[in-house]
Amino acid sequence: MSAARPVQPPPRPGGPHSVRGSPVSVALPLPTRGAPSPGRDIPTDSPTDSPTDTHCPYCSFQCGITLVAGSRPATLQPQEDFPTNRGGLCSKGWNATELLDHPDRLLTPLVRAVPGDRSSALRPATWDEALGRVVDGITASQQRYGRDSIGVFGGGGLTNEKAYSLGKFARVALRTAMIDYNGRFCMSSSATAGNKAFGVDRGMPFPVSDIGETAAILLVGANPADTMPPAMQWFDAGRAAGAQHIVVDPRRTSTAQGASVHLRPTPGTDLALANGLLHLAIREGYVDQAYIDARTTGFAAVRAGVRSFWPDRVERITGIAVDDLRRTVQILAEAPSAMILTARGAEQHSNGTDTAQAFINLALALGLPGKPFSGYGTITGQGNGQGGREHGQKADQLPGYRRLDDPAARAHVAAVWGIDPAELPRPGKSAFEMLDAIGTPDGVRVLMVMASNLVVSAPDANRVADRLAALDLLVVSDIFLSETAARADVVLPTAQWAEEEGTMTNFEGRVIHRRQALPPPAGVLDDLQLMIELARRLDRGQYFSADPRTVFDELRRASAGGIADYAGISYERIDAEQGVFWPCPTDEHPGTPRMFLERFPTPDGRARFIRVEHRDPAEMPDADYPFALTTGRLLTQYQSGTQTRRNNARMVPDPCVQLHPDLARGQGIGAGDIVEVRTRRGAARFRAQLDDGIRRDTVFVPFHWGGASNANTLTLAALDPYSRMPEFKVCAAALERVGDSDDTHLLQQVPERPVAVTARRPTRPPSTAARVRSPSRPQSTSPITSSTSKGSRMHTKNRFLQGIYAFTGQGIDKPAVLHADLTYLVPDGSVAQALYFRGGNTSDELVVAVLMRDGVPMRYFPIGAKSDVHIPLRVVEDMEGGTAVELYLAAPDGVSGTVVLDLGLVEV
């Protein structure tokens, strides 16, 4: 594939995706100031009204803004010349200044009135008292239960300096293995897949401006028009120049509305879609064999693995029409340049790593990574979701994206930290596993939470809340009293985005400078100060600094030679160059805006194809919970809503459930009604929002609310085996209308947890019976063989067991051979699958056709009296070479008639 044609620079942002206007000024009362902070002295007088160039506190696009905060209310403007947002800003960013003086702001530490009794009230405390309780709890727990009885839970919104220091704090000050962070719930699957395939995890291995230059984009499980609106200027510019965009999403989102093709798969089937697209690319001769031979390994195994993902099967699994599959492949393969971009919709599954890998396989087969304006990327969600996963917050990681179990990495980082490598703990538990182990013999007994709201953001939130209640001590550092902080024993107020200095790494891998515009209120510590104060009380203060520039210089040394190498990045370079892309190993290195141009950072320099197989979600809809539930974000809200619910509530006043009008009609639900959504784990209430752009079998709920509308009380904690990502994006749900549009009070009443219902299993009829008598000769025999279309690169053959047969039944529970011709033996070396069953019955009674595999019933096909059926086989199984496939028939004793049978199979 050749490079894309150049396009004109994107127009200045405007329209629906990027809001422009006057500086936002919202008059709010100044919060009462608290007691002075310990540690270094912080001026409490406001700076002058000089503008400060900094960055928005929300998503990973990290829009450049200019803030004036010397007098209140603070004002901001988007930076016209910052290379990512170029003057764009969404509603969340425009309202970010409201957080600075919000009346709900925490300004003093809080502790329980009765230590150890969480039913007692939280009361104000001095820093000495609050930190004393924390240190006493840590010391007592470690003396009795060991070092790993202390857990640390970080966040993807922390600056690089704070994320780095938090990992160091856990391992050097607390000397515990138990640290992880909320990015495990966000980006971990694509990160794991990127490391496996490319040898590196950088969300976008090219700058965002390349999106405006590429000729085709496949966007899977992403809705940047709502979650990252200023980025849409680049998508819009590409479309204006003729680019074709394909969006994969079960909902017709704002992003999907502008796409050339919108694919709406059944939730949980993205991997099958990716394998099916690769099957077609191979079959139609679209793969870039020269690229595969020169730059990759493992293609043969992947090619064999997708042989069985023929278009009809993929249509049955995903619900996407074959014609749309073909059109998608054609657009990607025939474009002079193309990108495949995934996000949480594809990744937050129990097979999320394999799903991301499947799309990487497709990108590699088309020869995209490393070519101009082409490649695979993942759209990171949290503000520092990229940097936050590079420098040690993860359970198995050291700075620079080094592995904690690598002796060389341990030696390097230990030398920078001034400790013996033997002092470093080994890898600990992943995020949900750490939470779920609380209350068990090997679980943590003290948990410190920083920049996370677990009670709202974790899966199976009721279960997590129960686990948190079993802790001896829960410590939360936050700017507001979140749902998690409200359950804590000690709450520590912290500085927020405009009150601290540090660096962030946006989703492109661009390291940027978040400048301090004003000091935090008196009585509030920033997180670096908090960590050093605790470290001092634990006699480990000599290893830490509260100065972000000093911390960043140490981070540079710790990351040197690692995958995410920041050694050549400095605050001065960031300011001069409007950000620096890693890896940047030396001061002279220009940084790396575009990766993989010559080689991949693997030992042999090649990218890796990895064979992956589709499997159903951990929980499928059934009679008790008949709908597929998926979760996501709204334009006006962010993450668990701790910040945005306080300043954007007027834009989306009530939490909502989105469902198709036909589904709503069948459940007796009208627009605006109060609906209770139930799963096997919990129940939550929402206001009904009807939208004919969502699949009829799917309901969508945003996860920004707690209390009665906590979407994550519904979600499932099935974990990906590689990334340990929970399955947020699909589970089985039921709906019930509980009130009309005026019953807003019901949204404040937390529903009772439903009693779990065991999934019903059909009983299997006996497989042994007398032969059904067939007095007449069938009018056609089988199997009938038909080759696939000429020019196919994968050799498949259609097989049919079909004909018209007279029968006399021996009992509906006695399926037996109908005719010897209804038998097919799968050839050695081949694989077969059943695609569909059609049948007709002339008798006055129900009959049942039975698909047998090696004499054992595999599927049952009931055919009603004087009726016919057509059954696409969505759930299919491979039948290996040597398998005997037969059709039996069961009919009531003595009943005679004629059946028409047609079983379609494909042989590969």
TrEMBL record:
UniProt KW keywords: 4Fe-4S, Iron, Iron-sulfur, Metal-binding
Domain (4Fe-4S Mo/W bis-MGD-type) ranges: 49-104
Statement: the UniProt record of this protein carries the keyword Metal-binding: yes
GO biological process: one example: respiratory electron transport chain
Biased segments, Low complexity type: 15-25, 44-53, 753-791
PROSITE patterns according to UniProt: 4FE4S_MOW_BIS_MGD
Region (Disordered): 1-53, 750-794
InterPro entries assigned: Asp_de-COase-like_dom_sf, MoPterin_dinucl-bd_dom, Mopterin_OxRdtase, Mopterin_OxRdtase_4Fe-4S_dom, Prok_molybdopt-oxidoreductase
Any GO MF annotation of the entry: 4 iron, 4 sulfur cluster binding
Name under which the protein is recorded: Molybdopterin oxidoreductase family protein
